[in-house]
Design brief:
lipid biosynthesis, transferase, Endonuclease, Chain A, 386 residues, 2 domains, 15 strands
């Protein structure tokens, strides 16, 4: 695993929902003078996405180098139309892993860097807050619940390096060039000097960082002493994450899981198959049904926080390319914790006694869903998912 390097001298700002994220991103693009990098999983064609497209095209037309990476699956059926619009405006656009030419991996990262001065990291796709992201474009009852982080400071260089490497690897590179690129990315570029916010970029890929995000969570849970609040929409982690949650709760840590449910019935059944053991160990589980919960965030104790793209499922932890930011800062963690506590108030806490009293039909359904999911993930991850 590549070393997790924290760097100081960062100004970090939490952005809640696409309304805040899109406004900040568009403003940064409008002020770009040299270069704009954007990488996303979903790039829709709704009005919110159109505003970002317009900003990118306008930047390219005034001479800014604009490079966009869109996942081939996440881009959907409108990708060709979008590429044509970009090409006409002078925006360079590459699709990640078309036709699965490089295996099953998708880029699930949501990253942007402007002029190597400002970076954005989080879980928010380029799609309107009030439209579902499952391809049906149904209207959500409330804006999608998600987060991103705006960063100024030393960490921006690390984000730029990762995005530039991704761009180069999607072009025509010889094997020796790819190896050289991987070696250069291993070199720590920052140090800790105890000013402003300490932060680290946490990448998951299938070469240097196969388990970096999972290990970052496990280390934080292993050192937790008071509280741990974790929010995630697709809960199907491997045994290590589940054991990390259980051990923390058994040590007396107040562990709360805020889970998004209601989108896919089979996904809910998989998540619910884990409930009995987690609840019996003291982990509190809350189901969020107010609107679509898409956030992949956590706050542990008073100063450890993470925001990013990685779900707690087999695809995010063992297959896809993901990107999180880990921040060691009491003010930032406190701000995110307030949002999480509001999310818990809007959610329904699962009663352990109700889980114990589930019907035999529900128990069998959950067990079959788990076994089916585990089998698929073991095939997809070549046995890594446990």
């Amino acid at each position: 695993m590549a070393k997790l390097v924290f760097c100081d001298g960062n100004q970090v700002q939490l952005l809640h929902t696409g309304e805040q994220f899109f406004a900040a991103l568009i403003d940064a693009i409008h002020h770009a003078q040299h270069e704009v990098f954007l990488e996303t999983y979903i790039y829709a064609t709704d009005q919110s996405a159109q505003k970002i497209t317009d900003a990118l095209c306008a930047a390219a037309q005034r001479g800014v180098c604009v490079q966009v990476i869109i996942d081939w699956i996440g881009g959907g059926k409108h990708t060709q139309e979008l590429q044509t619009r970009f090409q006409q405006a002078g925006v360079e656009c590459r699709l990640f892993n078309p036709w699965f030419k490089r295996g099953l991996a998708r880029t699930h990262r949501k990253l942007a860097v402007i002029d190597q001065d400002i970076a954005f990291i989080g879980g928010i796709n380029i799609i309107d807050d009030c439209l579902s992201d499952d391809g049906r474009n149904t209207t959500l009852p409330f804006p999608r619940w998600d987060f991103a982080v705006q960063v100024h400071g030393k960490l921006v260089h690390n984000v730029y390096q990762e995005m530039n490497a991704q761009w180069l690897k999607m072009g025509k590179l010889q094997l020796l060039q790819r190896l050289k690129l991987a070696v250069n990315l291993r070199k720590p570029t920052t140090t800790i000097d105890y000013h402003l916010s300490q932060a680290a970029l946490v990448i998951r890929d299938n070469l240097r960082n196969r388990s970096t995000i999972q290990k970052a969570y496990l280390k934080a849970l292993g050192s937790a002493r008071q509280t741990a609040i974790l929010a995630n929409p697709y809960f199907a982690p491997g045994r290590k994450i589940r054991n990390g949650l259980i051990k923390a709760a058994q040590r007396g840590v107040d562990v709360s899981l805020l889970l998004g449910v209601g989108e896919f019935d089979w996904q809910d059944a998989v998540a619910q198959s884990y409930y009995p053991k987690l609840l019996a160990s003291g982990v509190k589980i809350f189901e969020y049904r107010k609107t679509k919960l898409h956030a992949k965030v956590a706050v542990i104790d008073q100063d450890w926080a993470t925001v990013g793209s990685s779900n707690f499922d087999g695809l995010s932890l063992f297959v896809n390319h993901e990107a999180n930011i880990v921040i060691l800062d009491k003010d930032f963690a406190g701000n995110l914790k307030q949002h999480l506590q509001l999310g818990l108030l809007d959610a329904v806490q699962i009663d352990p006694h109700c889980v114990i009293q589930l019907s035999w039909f529900s128990r069998i359904k959950h067990r079959l869903a788990y076994l089916f999911y585990r089998t698929l993930m073991r095939i997809a991850t070549l046995g890594q998912y446990r």
